[in-house]
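As the next step, I wrote out a protein sequence along with its fold in token form, included below for the reader:
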Amino acid sequence: MSIVEYFAADDVAWQDDAPCATADFDFIPDQETESGAAEAEQGWCRTCPSRTRCIAWAMLHGAEGYWGGTTTYQRNQLRRVRTRAKCPICQATALVYADPHELCLACGVSWIRDVREEPIAATPLPAAGAA
């Protein structure tokens, strides 16, 4: 069983089924605000089945605006290489790692762990083929 679903970086078919595809909300405003981020997250992103792909696409392409319930600032923080004890998006502590990546089991966001620092804050993933 795979935890992560892979998709091509240029594949945007997931956008057609996203609730925001028909929204009249500006997801790419000139200036991002906390109230705008909260409205996007609560109104469309929180229950969206495409949320993980949306965040991944935005991070791969360096997109600005509200993507997958995150702001440009939050995604920039995810790009930073460091060790975390909590998920920077949902603050959950249910993290796993597959060197050098960490993955939040609560919201599905992943990032690269700083391999220069110890201790590792997350629980290792089971080996491939292990039950």
In short: The longest strand covers residues 95-98. The chain has a mean pLDDT of 79.
